[in-house]
């Protein structure tokens, strides 16, 4: 019989960066597919003490948490620069007390937010990825 408390404890000892790399390696396509059609949600993924969102979700998360951490990145498995925004678990818990989560799972949360003009998102995204290469050379 598995002890779920031990599994959670073991998960908590995995560094946030390792959890992020694993998330991207195992779920990047699924995440990007969600974001492709996303206009009114924030999809959040747990990396330990932080929750991360990508692309349009990242834009919406940044608007909800102006002091959040924004990270533009180039990923080998994806041809375009990607923007990630992260917030602490504590900040998200505080926010969730006043807002309804559509999904509230251990490693995934879904918030509904008002849609914003895509032009605003594109302008923000372009500013965040400025200077990054548009595509990566394949070896």
What features would you describe in this structure?
A six-stranded antiparallel sheet has the order 3-4-2-1-6-5. Strand 1 and strand 2 (50-54) form a beta hairpin. The N and C termini lie far apart (46 Å). The longest helix has 21 residues, at 16-36. Helix content is 43%, strand content 23%. Mean pLDDT is 87; it is low at 1-10. It has 139 residues and is α+β, with helices and mostly antiparallel strands. The chain has one domain (18-127). The chain is built from five helices and six strands.
Strand content range = 15-25%
Structural class designation = alpha+beta
Widest β-sheet, arrangement of strands:
3-4-2-1-6-5
When the domains are counted, the total is 1
Order of helices and strands: HHEEHEEHEEH
Give unreliable regions as ranges.
Answer: 1-10
Number of helices: 5
What portion of residues is helical?
Answer: 40-55%
Mean pLDDT: 87
Termini separation: 46 Å
Task: Give the total of beta strands.
Answer: 6
Globally, the shape reads globular
- What is the alpha-carbon Rg in Å? 16 Å
Largest sheet: 6 strands, antiparallel
